[in-house]
Amino acid sequence: MITIRQLRYFHALSQTLHFGRAAKQLNISQPALSAQIAQMEAFFGGPLFNRAASGVSLTSDGALVRERAARILAEVGELESLATLGDRLLSRRLRLGIIASVAPYLLPAILRELGHAYPTLECEIRESVTDRLLADLATGRIDCAVVALPIENPGIETIALFDDPFHLALPVAEASRLAVPVPIAALRQERLILLEEGHCLRAQALEICRIADAGEMAGLAATSLTTILRMVSG
């Protein structure tokens, strides 16, 4: 495998065509430079430089490697220049997606912390369901998203933020008849109000209902957890 360091050594030698001058430019010993070039030549299966008493010159293979190495090092340089920006990368705009079911509970704290850490950051919030947010991530419409795991998309990197337990909401008058925590089997006789189609929390709740052999209350679905709580308490 070729390393960035080896490419830099190769580039210096291809420019100076002199092991001593290249080693001095790189601030390394000449034997160290020779060893790295030898490793590259072993990797490519042939010499990249002609060594002669009159000097050093590139072979035809070496000339091809020089062109590609220059492009790679230029791109690495661009990445390194981004790194030197530090916090300035987060001083412009962040396009954040978040599922609607948790947005009212998480967004205030998220925006507050971002505001403290990056005062000049502009946040653009997109509140939607998981499938749409993942599609927006894939097409670059948003930079990151808060969604429920797991998601089956190998092209998206995920980081678990926290575990959120399920809670059963029911009228105060009914609460005393169920044990705490509520056994799944106890849901068998219940009719549940869930989030509407498209919400990942609905799919997870339906899986619990399937295990418990419970059913959804016909014709009743909500767009937010707050609405569900109001419907239950009313």
From TrEMBL:
The UniProt record lists the keyword Zinc: no
GO cellular component: protein-DNA complex
Record-linked SUPFAM superfamilies: Periplasmic binding protein-like II, Winged helix' DNA-binding domain
Signal peptide interval: none
Database matches in InterPro entries: LysR_HTH_N (IPR000847), LysR_subst-bd (IPR005119), WH-like_DNA-bd_sf (IPR036388), WH_DNA-bd_sf (IPR036390)
MF (Gene Ontology): DNA binding; DNA-binding transcription factor activity
One protein family per Pfam: LysR_substrate
Gene3D superfamilies in the cross-refs: Periplasmic binding protein-like II, Winged helix-like DNA-binding domain superfamily/Winged helix DNA-binding domain
Record flagged with keyword Chaperone: no
Start and end residues of each HTH lysR-type domain: 2-59
Keywords: Activator, DNA-binding, Transcription, Transcription regulation
Domain of life: Bacteria
Protein family membership: Belongs to the LysR transcriptional regulatory family.
Name by which UniProt lists this protein: LysR family transcriptional regulator
Organism listed in the record: Aurantimonas coralicida
